[in-house]
Amino acid sequence: MPPGAGPTEVEWAAAVAAVRDLPPDGRVQLICHVNPDGDALGSMLAFGLGLRHRGVRQLRATFPGPPEVPEPFRGLPGLDLLVPATEAYPDPDLVVCFDAASESRLGELVDRLETAGTALVLDHHASNTRFGGVNLVDPHAAATSVVVEELLARLGVPLDAGIAECLYVALSTDTGSFRFEATTPAVHAMAARLLATGIRPGDISRRIFDTRPFGAVRLFGEVLGRARLEPAAAGGHGLVWTYATLDDLTRHDQRPYVLEALIDSVRCTAEADVSCVVKQTGPDGWAVSMRSKGAVDVSRVAVALGGGGHRFAAGFTGHGTVEEVVGSIRAELGAALVTPGPA
Ligand code: 5GP
Ligand code: MN
Fold first, then answer.
1. Does 101 contact ligand 1 (Cβ within 6 A)?
2. Which of 162, 247, 252, 328 is 20 to 30 A from residue 184's alpha carbon, by CA?
3. Is the pLDDT of residue 230 over 50?
4. Which helix (H) or strand (E) segment is 242 a member of?
C-alpha cells in the first residue's frame, strides 16, 4: 500500500467480514483513546449505535483511565453503551479501536488486542502503527468519524439522527468547526448527509464548544494571563506557551477536561507559529497540546518526545518541571521546521 493512501478494498472487505461473521451472541468491545475527545467518543458511540441497529446485543464501549465523560459530551446518543474500563469484556469476539494512533493510547485495555478474536482499528492519524489485525486507517480523512461513516454504509446501516449526532460531534470537533485545512468538499458533503437526518447544529455546537462553567472562565483568565511569547523560537517563527497545574484546577473547582479548550485561545497569537499548553496530570506528569500554523510540523516534535498526532496538532506526555517540558519542546523545534525562518 502506498504511504498515505486510505484503506484498500481488501481491508474494507475484511472489516465488513469481521462484523458480518460475528457469532450469533458475539461480544463486541469498543475502545477509544485515553482522555477521549469528540472524535474518539463520537466515532465510538456512532459505531456502537450502528452495531445495535444490526442486532448486536452484547456490546460495550469504554476508554482507559477514570470513567469520566467530559461534560460537553454527556448528552451524546449511545452513552448507555459506555462502561468503566474495569467492566470491559476480558476476551471479546471483536474489539474495535477508535482514533488511537498507537497501542499506548489504549492504556490498561491494550491486552484486548491479544485476547479478542479479531482486532479492528479505525483511525486517521498518519503516524498510526497499524496495530490491529484489520486496519482501516485513512490519513487523508479529516476525522476517524469519516472512516466510521463509510464502514457503517458498507455494513448497510442507515444514518439515523442518533448516529448522525455522534458523527457530527466527531467531525466538527476534529475540523475545528469546519475551519481547519482538512475541511474538504467531502467533509461538507458528509456534514450535509448528517444534517439531513434533522439534527440541530446550533444546539450541538453550543453544547460542545460554547459552554463552560464560570469557574473555568476565570481559570482561563489566570492561565492565559501567564502565557509567554518567544518570538525567536522555531527559527524566528515564534512559540507561545502557557501551563495549568492541578492546583489551578483545585482553586477554581474545575475538572481537567475544561483545559482542552485552552489551546484554542493560545493558538490565536499572531506572533507565534507554534502554540503549546502544558497541563499537569500528576506530581511529575504533564499532558502537552501543541498546534502549528504550518511552519513547524508539530507531530515531529511530539514523536521525538514520545507522543504523536498530526502536522498541525500533536501532543505527548511530559515529565519534570514545566520549564523542563517546554525546554524539551524548544529543543525539537528546529528539526521540525517545514519552512525556513524569516530573513
Ligand atoms: P490534543 O492536543 O487535542 O490533545 O491532541 C492533538 C493531537 O495530538 C491528537 O490528534 C492526538 O492524537 C495527539 N496526541 C495528543 N496527546 C498525545 C499523546 O500523549 N500521545 C500521542 N501518541 N498522541 C497524542
Ligand atoms: Mn481524530
1. yes
2. 162
3. yes
4. strand 239-244
